[in-house]
Amino acid sequence: MASNRTEEEKVESYTRALLETARHEGRANADLVQWQHALKFTPEVLQTLATMAEEGDITLIKKVAAHYKELLDSDDERVSVTVTTAVPMDNQLREAVRDRMERELRAPVYLVERVDPQIIGGVVLEARGNRYDASVRAQLSNIRKQLSSVYIESEQ
């Protein structure tokens, strides 16, 4: 089972797979330089790259980098709000969320939409480092905690 492998075994496996391909394609030294730069990546950059890979969008890296610089240079004041729902949002919900968040944040909003069936229902909003979790999963978790504390208190 892969989950039972030690950290050293995982490192060996990843490294050998990368090195074999890089040697075969004649770019082993170039890949080493890339890995040394990758050590500087923030978790957000790594997560974005992973998402792009999962979605088959790796070919967009240059365009994303160029657009990032363009937005950075333009002093764009829009706030990115990540909206996670169990199913894709329709236009009506999208506009309602955008309007509400623009009022709350007092700024124009750009919605980053994610679908995660594990939240069961409801919505999770993230903006400016804050998270508001109104998902069914979170509500069920809170109910379970409350019931557990009531049960434990009643036994004493």
Characterise the protein shown here.
The chain is of the alpha+beta class. It has 3 domains: 8-40, no CATH class; 48-76, no CATH class; 77-156, 3-Layer(aba) Sandwich (Glutaredoxin). The protein has helices at residues 7-24, 28-38, 43-54, 61-73, 91-105, 136-155; strands at 79-85, 109-115, 122-127, 130-135. Strands 2-1-3-4 form a 4-stranded mixed β-sheet. α5 links the parallel β1 (79-85) and β2. The longest helix has 20 residues, at 136-155. The protein is flat, with a radius of gyration of 22 Å. The mean pLDDT is 87.
Which ranges are low-confidence, i.e. pLDDT below 50, for 5 or more consecutive residues? none
From the N-terminal CA to the C-terminal CA, the straight-line distance is 44 Å
Q: Which fold name fills CATH's third level, the topology of the largest domain?
A: Glutaredoxin
SSE ordering = HHHHEHEEEH
Spatial extent as radius of gyration = 22 Å
Number of DSSP E strands = 4
How is the main sheet built? 4 strands, mixed
Gross morphology is flat
Strand content: 15-25%
User: What is the arithmetic mean of pLDDT?
Assistant: 87
- Overall CATH class of the largest domain: Alpha Beta
Query: Helical stretch count?
Result: 6
So, CATH architecture of the largest domain? 3-Layer(aba) Sandwich
